[in-house]
TrEMBL record:
This is LLM class flavin-dependent oxidoreductase. It comes from Nocardioides mangrovi. Residues 5-319 form the Luciferase-like domain. Coiled coil: none annotated. The keyword Oxidoreductase applies. Keywords: Flavoprotein, FMN, Monooxygenase, Oxidoreductase.
């Protein structure tokens, strides 16, 4: 039996993860997320994770335009649940580590130690620049700043007073009490580059990644494991999977075709610019500015099909990528989540891939 954690990436932003006008309506409201969290707990999932979004992508679908703040959301969900983990996301450029340390420790009291933290080291350019805090830093510099941020929060969670004189953060006799329940919460960070994976392996507990295909999931998972072994072999790997279930494989494919038919080209272009897939040269003749037009609304790493087919595909990737956790997103976080929890994950567990709620 390989011990696998199963989590739900919460729909705290409107539209979920599919920029399309033909997807099931996800309003990003707290009421909807509360329903999803309680359902996830009843189904035996190990944790929920909420992302940090500060600006949407617009377009006809208003993709991500309505978004809940992650730490506050998790505090509410913690009060409304009893067993499931409630993990949050913090952008290290936007929230001072001393403030984050206090907020996470408070959430730890609310949840009785069920908190976890996903940090964003690189940041979202448009989210930061709209607030006047955008920093034009390369990846290595962003990770250096994030490493200081992590050092500070860990110190505040474990020491009575903290003096820190870093490149980005300076603290003098800084105190933060009470401490989190049960000690330092688990901390993860999304990364796929060697630089990012090495940062996570040296400073955090786990890495979050998403592949674009079966082979890319396996390649990233194996590379993360190698880098983990080079840095003490303490790194957990969590892969994000978009799940689209259907009664049959053909039924699931019809759902994907429908969502792609309604793809939001405005939102897709803005997403491509945000993540550097489109050149900042806006020339109409620049081929770099045209690639996004081939993007589909649904992730290329989507796992679709009947429950049996999805379970088989997931088992293959979990085994060969040697991952420690699967974090799920889906078009409908009620009906699809129910299929995932009642039909798909039990098949994985029966075949030796973890024990939900362990």
């Amino acid at each position: 039996m390989k011990d696998i954690e199963y989590g739900i990436f919460m729909p705290v932003s409107s539209g979920g993860w599919i920029p399309s006008s033909t997807v099931p309506e996800l309003d990003g409201s707290y009421a909807y997320n509360l329903e999803v969290a309680r359902l996830s707990e009843r189904l035996g999932f190990d944790f929920t994770l909420s992302q940090a979004v500060w600006r949407g992508y617009g377009g006809p679908s208003r993709h991500f335009d309505d978004n809940l703040e992650s730490l506050v959301t998790s505090g509410g969900l913690a009060q409304a649940t009893t067993d499931i983990g409630v993990w949050s996301t913090v952008n290290t450029a936007m929230l001072h580590p001393a403030i984050a340390a206090k907020m996470v420790a408070t959430g730890s009291q609310i949840s009785n130690g069920r908190t976890g933290l996903n940090i964003v080291a690189g940041g979202n350019r448009t989210s930061e620049t709209q607030m006047g805090i955008g920093l034009d830093l390369d990846n290595s510099t962003k990770y250096r700043r994030a490493a200081e941020w992590v050092e500070v929060v860990k110190a505040l969670w474990t020491e009575s007073t903290v003096d820190y004189d870093g490149e980005y953060f300076q603290l003098k006799d800084c105190q933060s009490d009470p401490k989190p329940v049960g000690g330092v919460p688990q901390m993860i960070c999304a990364a796929t580059s060697d630089t990012g994976l090495a940062f996570v392996a040296k400073n955090l507990d786990g890495v979050l990644f998403e592949g674009t295909s079966r082979d890319s999931v396996v390649a990233i998972g194996q590379r993360a494991r190698r880098i983990s072994q080079e840095n003490g072999d303490n790194l957990k790997t969590y892969c994000v999977f978009m799940i689209v279930p259907g009664d049959t494989d053909a039924d699931a494919q019809r759902r994907i075709d429908l969502y792609n038919e309604g793809r939001d080209l405005v939102a897709l272009e803005r997403m491509a610019r945000e993540w550097g897939a489109v050149s900042h040269d806006s020339s109409a003749h620049n081929p770099d500015n045209e690639g996004w037009k081939d993007s589909t609304a649904i992730s290329t790493g989507t796992v679709a099909g009947s429950p049996d087919s999805i379970a088989e595909q997931l088992a293959d990737m979990v085994e060969h990528a040697d991952i420690d956790g699967a974090v799920f997103i889906m078009p409908d976080f009620i009906d699809d989540l129910t299929v995932l929890g009642e039909e798909i994950v039990p098949k994985l567990v029966a075949n030796g891939f973890g024990r939900v709620g362990a």
